[in-house]
Design a protein that fits this description.
Number of helices: 36
Number of domains: 5
Number of strands: 24
Oligomer: single chain
Strand order of the largest sheet: 3-2-1-4-5-6
Radius of gyration: 32 Å
Helix content: 40-55%
Strand content: 5-15%
CATH class of the largest domain: Alpha Beta
Distance between the termini: 77 Å
CATH topology of the largest domain: Alpha-Beta Plaits
Largest sheet: 6 strands, mixed
Structural class: alpha/beta
Shape: globular
CATH architecture of the largest domain: 2-Layer Sandwich
């Protein structure tokens, strides 16, 4: 048999756990409320292996619940391992269901672990001349690696793989595969409760094996070991080390045969797999297994001359509506070149206007734009598109003032399903029309070999682009009645669609930054990081790679003996939660947290912002994302301005770098004051809270006075801070344990705070109870303007999932209404700036604030205008208050 044949042995148990924990902080919940995190990541890994590795043979191996021969040797084996989480247990049947539909062989062997089955099959495959690839991240498997056995370690929910051969083992352990069990025997393994030798960590174990050889050689030369405590423990716990080696050694003689042809990949049961993916809402994977695009009866054609264009113009004028799509050379609207335009007037019929293809079969760009300009600027002719903000930004650059763009299918999809992760045209086409579109990569390729759309032959480009316009039109016809039926058309027409023009203009306006200031700041941060690094090395007693979690784990938990909080499969956890916990008692973790924060801010903003300056405009043009959050909030990217910290000194200094275009302009910042609390007062109708806002009182101070039973003048700053945490915590559905952690108090004390709060503000308690009740009955909650957020998980039997849904139900109407409010303010301000012919530019939207670049001569007028429109955008039962600041940079606007 040829050596080129490869047998992929997948450690199913390890992959399932890895898949589950990949989304532990942000679980994937489908519209039915089912947690699909583990099945999604598991499937992603399997499909990637099949797609990229193309295995000849394949098997998925799972552990069984029965004890193994290791338990007979050591009753405490794996005794400390936590049982499978209930949420994961609920997802396992789905994983088995997917494997079955993929027609992949599954192996389990009572009395043996998956490791033993995989090791045995790998040995037997090698004897047949078949190469084995062990798909696992478990370091124990490194003992099996030979020239014909390798490891494939899946990373990050299956998106990346690391291939490990004999050299990879040496890089990881400092020894060859034949010595891995000796290292493991000495260091032990807390995840499997393998004892090892006390005080011997990984680094020490590797040094001992490198110096003396196998375990028995280490024990025979124990008197030569330099460190007294290690030497004594090696003598005292020698038998424990030998037992540990037996526990970590994989049995390659398990009673299982190998008929290799039984493991040949036979292809999927496409019908069953497709049904499962649809049920789980795995649209991404549906595209991979669905059949080729259906040959529908469509009429797609490229226009060849001016006469054909004139005929199309006549048809558009008669139809009074069209779907449009632009083809360009890049996704950056500021720098891209227009290559072609597709137009659909009726379903399954579309036309392509090539203007810049390299093969020369083009219409004259000037003539095309001169004929389309009156149509694209005519309010009476309705235009539909997918991601209209991008297309209309390009049209502006080509001299067209776009009007009548009334329907964006991406935004419509977002309103109909705000929790969906994707609103791409190909995803929507497959989901709603059961039509698989031609991927762009089929035309231009991927990676280094990717070519420009301008180099795609016109005939291929026409088929692709016409399909875009056609599908857009079909989706528009499908989405419009759905929006009307669900009462979302008002929000769509009056808020989301008008906002497209506002965001487009903000992106084209851009914002200036002081590059010289950031360069100086980068140097200063570099010096500070060097100083911090030296302090860290002094505390650690040696230099090491601070960014290496393995080296850091050794320093903290082995060398310095700090208490271990939690471990990962590859070693000690040094994540933020662990370091924050340790920072309360130890100086080094505090410095490490500071080092990480400074490193992140330096790389993400201080060093990155100057590189994002457009050389043609001298400004940064961030992208504002309208369909990215389930609450209706806007987000931004390239750069993400939402994440610049305002409470830290470094974060404030970064804001100092955002400046007006020149000295004749200033920046003006309008910031809603306590807007979410004000909305909560309105929605809850709580009389005490409403009265407090109407009287212009300090709400946090009054809450502190009422909760702690003190006159207002006796409320200390710390008590006010605690009341502020309670005010916002209640709004975000925080319970006693969350509040206790936030305030650094006992849960019992936090519970008392919450009970007092609800006694003082009974309307808030009634609002919370009623909102959760309505969410259970309807399956969704709404904002004041009718924006919906579906919460299918509110009926979950899993307490954690259900409680998260309940918190979301309480907060979404508040946060979503705040999002609607600022969007309406933006639309109204944009309109008035144009009507009053002011030169002020709206340049940024971050959280509850808007930033403007204002000519000094317009300052008084604009200040009044912004306050009027921001405070008057929505009528509440409490006054809306806006704080306005002016300065020569963004930081100064905050005083």
């Amino acid at each position: 048999m040829s050596q080129s044949k490869r047998f992929f042995l997948i450690d199913g148990s390890a992959l399932a756990y890895r898949s589950y924990f990949a989304f532990i902080r942000n679980p994937l919940i489908n519209s039915k409320g089912e947690n699909t995190s583990a099945p999604f990541a598991f499937t992603n890994t399997i499909l990637k292996i099949l797609r990229e590795q193309k295995p000849d043979y394949l098997a998925v191996v799972f552990d069984t619940s029965a004890p193994t021969f290791r338990h007979e040797s050591f009753a405490e084996y794996k005794a400390t391992r936590q049982k499978m989480p209930d949420e994961m247990k609920d997802q396992m049947p789905r994983i088995y269901q997917i494997i079955q539909a993929m027609r992949l062989p599954v192996l389990e062997l009572e009395g043996f672990e998956a490791d033993d089955v995989i090791g045995t099959l790998a040995r037997k495959a090698s004897a047949m001349g078949v190469e084995s690839i062990l798909v696992t991240g478990d370091k124990d498997f490194m003992q099996l690696i030979t020239p014909s056995v390798k490891m494939l370690n899946p990373r990050r929910s299956g998106d990346e793989f690391e291939l490990i051969d004999e050299e990879g083992v040496k890089a990881r352990f400092g020894v060859g595969p034949e010595r891995v069990t000796d290292v493991l025997a000495l260091m032990g393994d807390t995840s499997d409760n393998v004892p090892g030798v006390p005080k011997v960590g990984e680094k020490t174990a590797i040094q001992l094996v490198q110096q003396f050889g196998d375990l028995e050689s280490v024990l025979a030369n124990v008197e030569k070991v330099g460190k007294k405590s290690v030497r004594e423990n090696l003598i005292q716990f020698a038998d424990l080390a030998r037992l540990s080696k037996a526990l970590v050694t994989i049995d390659t003689n398990a009673p299982i045969g190998l008929e290799i042809e039984q493991f040949k990949f036979k292809g999927f049961d496409n019908k069953s797999l497709s049904e499962i993916f649809k049920e789980l809402e795995f649209n991404k994977f549906l595209k991979e297994i669905s059949p080729a695009p259906r040959e529908e009866k469509v009429e797609y054609s490229a226009l060849k001359n001016e006469e054909e264009l004139e005929d199309l113009i006549g048809a558009i004028i008669e139809a009074k509506s069209l779907a449009i799509d632009l083809e360009t050379t890049s996704t950056d609207p500021m720098r891209t070149t227009l290559v072609g335009i597709s137009i659909a007037l009726s379903p399954c019929r579309a036309f392509y206007l090539p203007v810049a293809h390299s093969d020369g079969q083009n219409l004259d760009l000037g003539f095309v734009m001169s004929r389309l300009k009156p149509i694209l600027e005519d309010e009476g002719i309705q235009k539909y598109g997918q991601n209209i903000k991008y297309d209309t930004a390009i049209l502006l650059r080509y001299g067209v003032e776009p009007r009548g763009f009334v329907f964006d299918t991406m935004i419509a999809s977002y309103l109909l399903n705000p929790s969906a992760h994707q609103h791409n045209l190909d995803v929507l086409s497959l989901k709603y029309l059961d039509h698989k579109m031609v991927p762009l990569s089929d035309l231009i390729g991927k990676g280094r070999k990717q070519k420009s759309f301008a180099d795609v032959p016109v005939e291929q480009a026409a088929r692709y682009s016409c399909e875009d316009a056609d599908i857009t039109l079909r989706l528009k016809n499908l989405f419009e009645p759905k929006l009307i039926q669900l009462g979302l058309m008002g929000l769509f027409k009056e808020v989301e669609m008008p906002l497209v023009e506002v965001l487009r203009e903000m992106e084209l306006n851009g914002v200036c930054i002081d590059v010289g200031f950031l360069e100086r700041m980068s140097w200063e941060l570099g010096e500070e990081l060097d100083r911090l690094a030296n302090e860290i090395y002094r505390e650690a007693g040696e230099e090491f790679n601070i960014n290496s979690t393995q080296q850091l784990g050794y320093i903290l938990f082995e060398k310095l003996g700090l208490p271990t909080r939690k471990r990962t499969k590859t070693g000690y956890s040094t994540d933020v939660e662990v370091l924050e916990d340790l920072a309360h008692e130890y100086d080094l973790p505090r410095k490490l947290l500071e080092y990480r924060q400074l490193t992140k801010l330096k790389s993400t903003y201080v060093d990155a912002l100057p590189r994002l300056v457009n050389p043609d405009t001298g400004r940064i043009h961030t992208s504002f994302n309208q369909t990215a959050t389930a609450t209706g909030r806007l987000s931004s990217s390239d750069p993400n301005l939402q994440n610049i910290p305002i409470r830290t000194e470094i974060g404030r200094k970064i804001r100092r770098a955002f400046v007006p275009v020149d000295g004749s302009h200033v920046l003006l910042d309008g910031d809603y004051s306590q807007i979410e609390l004000r909305i909560m007062a309105h929605l809850s109708g709580d009389r005490t809270l409403i009265e407090s806002f109407r009287n212009g009182e300090d709400v946090h101070l009054r809450t502190a006075a009422l909760v702690f039973g003190l006159p207002p003048e006796f409320v200390t700053p710390d008590l006010r801070r605690q009341a502020k945490v309670v005010n916002f915590g209640i709004m975000y559905g925080m319970g006693p344990y969350g509040l206790a952690k936030e305030l650094g108090i006992r849960p019992k004390e936090a519970k008392g705070f919450i009970e007092n709060y609800f006694t003082i503000y009974p309307g808030v308690k009634a609002y919370i109870d009623e909102t959760i009740k309505m969410a259970r009955e309807k399956g969704y909650v709404t904002t004041m303007l009718g924006r919906r957020r579906y919460l299918p998980e509110i009926g979950s039997t899993n307490n954690r999932v259900r409680e998260f849904a309940e918190r979301t139900a309480v907060n979404t109407p508040i946060q979503g209404t705040a999002a609607d409010l600022i969007k309406m303010a933006m639309i109204n301000i944009h309109r008035r700036l144009k009507e009053e012919e002011l030169k002020t530019k709206m340049i940024l939207q971050v959280h509850d604030e808007l930033v403007f670049e204002v000519p000094r001569g317009e300052l008084d007028v604009v200040r009044r205008l912004i306050v009027e429109e921001m405070e008057g955008a929505l009528e509440l039962s409490v006054p809306i208050k806006v704080d306005v600041g002016v300065g020569d940079n963004w930081l100064e606007t905050h005083g």
